[in-house]
Amino acid sequence: MNSSFNVHDAAGYEQLMGRWSEKLAPQFINFAGLANGEKILDVGCGTGSLTFALARAANFGEIAAIDYSPVFVEEAIRRNTDPRIKVRQADACALPFGDATFDRALALLVLHFVPEAEKAVAEMRRVVRPGGVVAAAVWDHLGGMAGMRMMIDTVAALSESGRQLRGRYCFQPMMQPGEMRHTFVEQGLMDVTETQLMIRMDYLSFDDYWAPIAAGEGPFGKYMATLDAAERARTDAAVRSAYEAGRPDGPRSFANVAWACRGIAP
Ligand SMILES: C[S@@+](CC[C@H](N)C(=O)[O-])C[C@H]1O[C@@H](n2cnc3c(N)ncnc32)[C@H](O)[C@@H]1O
């Protein structure tokens, strides 16, 4: 299995994560660098948050965007109006491109869903020209996502299966401090830099926060779909209570940190 990502529905993904990766994308582009005329690869493009942010940020030569999920590929193709952007289904661990094809290969919020993430980094390095840039960012699930951590700790307090979910969620690939940097160096990238990027996720209400998960989106959504009606009701109520934190339902804002790493292809 080359992806642990759970895809349910493109609109649900937008509400769960797409709107936040869109907010993170300009910071990631700033860190990864970008110049006019470049040929760029977006690995794990999802519905296109990074792809279209790149297109807005520079007068690029060409963007190739790939994703494992046919549902997301279809949605990114539907959204695209620029013939210089080409979206296709592919695996990050076996990129369908020749060596040294791109100026930059970027992966936003993808490597933690690739069980053999080092293979994806090796592939990104392979398809980038000497002197080109490989860059990636992943959420810090363990220490950097207050809103998601609140949800997963609540679920873990309720059941053994919730505790197992938390163990998997908090220790996905590339999330430990220095882990991505180490992998980039091991894969032969040069001048490797790791940093942290931060955005806030601002929700209008509990429903705005919880609805995509209750509908089955993402890793929590997949977990929720395994619960019977009574367990679901108990979980809904407990997470609502954590979100509200003793005040009436309404807007809440949570800080979220991503690890980001970039290196130069030899
Ligand atoms: C959290 S989404 C991020 C999508 C997009 N980059 C964004 O920032 O909105 C993770 C994406 O990684 C993709 N993915 C996971 N494993 C993959 C693999 N082996 N090859 C290509 N894409 C993969 C998933 O299908 C999903 O679209």
Record the SSE blueprint.
Blueprint: H1 10-32, E1 39-43, H2 49-57, E2 62-67, H3 70-79, E3 85-89, E4 102-108, H4 117-127, E5 128-139, H5 146-158, H6 160-170, H7 179-186, E6 190-203, H8 206-214, H9 218-224, H10 229-244, E7 252-264
Parallel strand pairs: 1-2, 1-4, 2-3, 4-5
Antiparallel strand pairs: 5-7, 6-7
Helix pairs in contact: 1-2, 1-8, 5-6, 5-10
Description:
It is built from ten helices and seven strands. The chain has 266 residues and is an alpha/beta fold. Strands 3-2-1-4-5-7-6 form a seven-stranded mixed beta sheet. The longest helix has 23 residues, at 10-32. It binds S-adenosylmethionine. S-adenosylmethionine binds next to helix 1 and helix 2.
Keyphrases for this structure?
binds S-adenosylmethionine, alpha/beta, 266 residues, 10 helices, seven-stranded mixed β-sheet
